[in-house]
Amino acid sequence: MPELPEVEVVRRGLAQWVVGREIAAAEVLHPRAIRRHLAGADEFAGRLKGRTVLSAQRRGKYLWLPLSGPGEALLAHLGMSGQLLVVRSDAPPEKHLRVRLRFEDGGSDLRFVDQRTFGHVMLSPLAGGVPEPISHIAPDPFEPAFDEAEFTRRLRARHTEIKRALLDQSLISGVGNIYADEALWIARLHWARPTQTLTGPKVAELVTAVRTVMGAALEQGGTSFDSLYVDVNGESGYFARSLEAYGRRDLPCSRCGTAIRREAFMNRSSYSCPRCQRPPR
Q: Is the pLDDT of residue 234 over 90?
């Protein structure tokens, strides 16, 4: 699933190509894409027509486009395979095109393409500048609203494994499986380390590691393992070439040379160096 860097790459593309444009028409080609917009496709399209995109915002893995008029936004979650693409209006429809927005200026469309239909878009009222359905999600580590001291307090109060805490979007948003493994490798922490055993300085080191790895990924356009993870122009990111732990089973750790280990974790995988990231007793 796309994580914060991949979603931020898309947000930047939307800010460049969509903000300031008036929506001429919206077309829903698959009802599942707007399944959380309970009023249905016709109401969805009617409420979008004539409204101008004011900005492009993100929190964690969610994107939204605040709109002119009543305080609402077009909220999107990309799911496993969703793509928001800026495409010439005369280009043929993509095989898995789900929603298309046309604009009054006659320029490129904004198209939501989703092969597996796990993603969705919906119209949502804003509460404090954030769509109401995601108001419970914690700020991500790049937001001014992120309070590191409060995060440290809440993290140490949890009695769980550190990687489970990093994936908890109510505690810190935007961190997924890939960047959790990478940040834990940088901080020399095993994924199963109990959160209550972490010191304040060690949590600060971990937050720095999260920012470092996701910032580096952002500079390279995110991590693309297949053709589904792309920016608004359909371009892939290149951070997969720089991964130190994730997906590197049996390859040598670049720090100590020990073979990276893969372990089962929450129906997924966790990758770590058994020497640099010693498991808890």
A: no
Q: What is the mean pLDDT of the chain?
A: 90
Residues 6+ apart with CB under 8 A from 269: 177, 262, 263
Question: Which of the residues 2, 5, 139, 141 is marked catalytic?
Answer: 2
- Domains in the chain, ordered, with CATH? 4-134 (3.20.190.10), 148-272 (1.10.8.50)
Q: Is 3 a catalytic residue?
A: yes
**Known active-site residue 154:** no
Q: Pick the catalytic residue: 51, 59, 61, 156?
A: 61
With a pLDDT cut of 70, the percent of the chain lying above it is 91
Given the residues 32, 116, 268, 278, the one annotated as active site: 268
Question: What are residue 172's phi and psi, to 5 degrees?
Answer: -155, 130
